[in-house]
Amino acid sequence: MIKAEDVEFYKENGYLLVRGVFSPDEVAEMRRAVDGIVDRAARSKYDHNAAWQGDYLPPEELKKLVLKGFHDVHYHDAAFTRAAVHPNMAAVLTKLIGPNVQLHHSKMLVKPPEKGAAFPLHQDTPYFPHDNHTMMAGSVHLDDSDMENGCLCVIPGSHKQGLLPHVGKYYLDHRQYPLSAATPCPARAGDVLFFNYLTIHGSDVNKSTRNRRNVLFQYRDPSDPPTEDVHVNWGQGLMVCGENPVYREFKPEYQLR
Ligand SMILES: O=C(O)CCC(=O)C(=O)O
């Protein structure tokens, strides 16, 4: 699915856009599954607006914005279990992470038309720090995305700077790191943007009349231990490729409720 020069590009830049990972039928199945999760949430007490709070936008603008964000989507619909371990995903992941690849968590990020929330620039590292920094996201595009509907943007090479100080652990100071400092990564439905958890990334408001639906899978080498006992999810640790050589040494500690 990718060539040696793509792996080199990822190592240098901390991200890689891979085209056509999912077929139109697979995208349609995931769109139906996303819509199902949104519908079921709306009928439950679990519906919420996951838009990030903070001072990166004026308060009157921020309060109009909406993000339908839900974690662990592969526990909501089997379409996402298939996507997480899809052979095309596995083919890329083994080149970027190594022979052993484990799912850390999944989530969906739906930015509704005209009011879809922004993500200020940040690294994912503070949310789930690991020793060897093998953690990386594969953000699956379910809609064509561009700057108008809030596509992902990255700062190429920023993963080489290590962990930077975040405002309250959540995002980088927007005065020092405005979104305009990042490179837009427009993509088509079915494309996947892979980026390391140290790569600075974010996205703008969805100002268009179109949806912007992404499903993001976070993967790591199972031998890369977390440095803090945070972001532990139900069912964390599904093996996507290869084997787990350290299964007996550490497993996520979670409680069933
Ligand atoms: O999907 C996006 O626009 C950004 C998502 C993101 O930055 C995150 O979940 O960490």
From TrEMBL:
SUPFAM superfamilies: Clavaminate synthase-like
Keywords: Dioxygenase, Oxidoreductase
Pfam families listed in its UniProt record: PhyH
Alphabetical list of InterPro entries matching this protein: Phytyl_CoA_dOase-like
Top-level taxon in the UniProt lineage: Bacteria
Keyword Oxidoreductase: yes
MF-aspect GO terms: 2-oxoglutarate-dependent dioxygenase activity; iron ion binding
Protein name from the UniProt record: Phytanoyl-CoA dioxygenase family protein
Organism from which the protein derives: Cohnella nanjingensis
